[in-house]
Specification:
By secondary structure, the chain is an alpha+beta fold. 31% of the residues lie in helices and 29% in strands.
Length: 156
């Protein structure tokens, strides 16, 4: 993947840096996941540190955005299901392009590894629902779990 202008500025103080997630990032990612006000988990322990580790090491790949050493957002791509398993931005840091870039990194990785279509789901009528629609994802049916399905087809 080529460096974006944001990546090129990563060494400068105050710049956003995007990189592959590491095991050491798991506590910050769990903190961010627990802090979001929409799409809250009914049971925060439902997503364990071990699950996140599995997505980093065997089930897919993850990325983070950091600023001055603080993780501000993260995304995960799940290889087998060709889906975005997670995308979250630390509250108070929205609307800085963090989610857009992390979503692109995860989607591009899945397409580069053979996906013809990438899917994800989120709670309906939320900021996330609007976020995916405005980024060209197709909104699909309501799933049995109450979430709405989104898809993005590979561009030819």
């Amino acid at each position: 993947m080529t460096a974006s202008p944001i990546d090129a500025d990563a060494g400068k103080s105050g710049a956003l840096a995007f990189r592959e997630a590491r095991l050491a990032d798991i506590p910050a990612m769990r903190e961010i996941r627990a802090a979001v006000s929409e799409n809250r988990l009914s049971d925060p322990e439902k997503i364990t540190a071990r699950m996140v580790e599995d997505y980093l090491t065997t089930l897919g790949k993850g990325w983070v955005c950091e600023h001055d050493g603080t993780v501000l957002g993260f995304s995960f791509a799940a290889h087998k299901s060709q889906s975005i398993w997670a995308l979250f931005v630390r509250p108070g840091h929205e609307r800085r392009g963090i989610g857009t870039r992390l979503l692109a990194m995860a989607s591009e990785w899945l397409f580069a590894h053979g996906a013809e279509r990438v899917v994800l789901s989120t709670a309906p009528d939320t900021r996330a629902d609007r976020f995916y629609r405005t980024r060209g994802w197709s909104r699909g049916a309501l799933l049995a779990n109450g979430e709405v399905l989104f898809r993005l087809d590979r561009q030819r």
